[in-house]
Amino acid sequence: MTTPRPFTFFNGDVPLAAHVHRSGDPEERQPAVLITGSWLTVKEQMADRYAAALAERGFTVFTFDFAGWGASGGRPRYAELPARKVDDIVAAARAVSTLSSVRPGAIGYLGVCASAQYALRAVAQGAPIASYASVAGWFHDAATVAPFYGGADGVAMRLDRAAEALEAFHRTGEVRTVPAYEDGNDRAGMSFELPYYAEAGRGAVPTWTNEMAEFSWAYWLTYDGLSPASAVSVPSLFVHSDDCVLPDNVRTVANAVTGPVETVWTTGSQIDFYDQQEQVAFAVVAAAAHFEGTLS
């Protein structure tokens, strides 16, 4: 088992708190993999779990908190801002590419859940990422995200709340927050039962603050996670299940990327891929084989 070492990237003047997972000779150049998790989360949740397993397989793995989250700097806090997260991914990949412990040109990215769609856009925008992997990837547009929130009426309600929160933010600087997760609370980011976020031994880790800036709805519900696929030509892997979210969107994205692509279908629910041994081990084996074959 590797012990993560603290590190910091910068996106402009904003420090992004990171962990480096690595085994073997500290001076050996290894292929690198950046890993991030779902929306509203921090690196100590799903990302570090995958990082530890891939580091044992000979990769130098970096996990990090996006701006405004966890130990990273940046304001506003707890805001799910897809464009800012994409910029953070680009900055992190560029920073990793300068390190002498990393094999030149051999940087991969593994996105779990929602960060898979942000990383897809970062690759499309030219981030120095040579290989891409999605695990239980969440890729949405306005039409396909709406059913998760009660359809058109539920979306309209949340966009109205976001508009009020944005008005308050512009007027006073106040960032109105709601729970990131609370079962049954329609103001929460995630209001349906997801035990991962409720259990201390799973996702309710000490470094995670259960908050979301309410104006995040204005950006999350209108994000286009599908169209960047046609601009992605790097080798790509999609690990998914029909019991995960939006499997048809994953198929659409996988069919749209223009580079070599592999899809690996298995069983398990969305949150099973966050921390359950069977699904995580399956995804790690697939991702390791993908990166070994594309970052050599």
Automatic annotation (TrEMBL):
At the top level, the lineage of the source is Bacteria
Q: InterPro entries given for it?
A: AB_hydrolase_fold, Polyketide_trans_af380
Q: Where are the transmembrane segments?
A: none
**How is this protein named in the record?**
Lysophospholipase
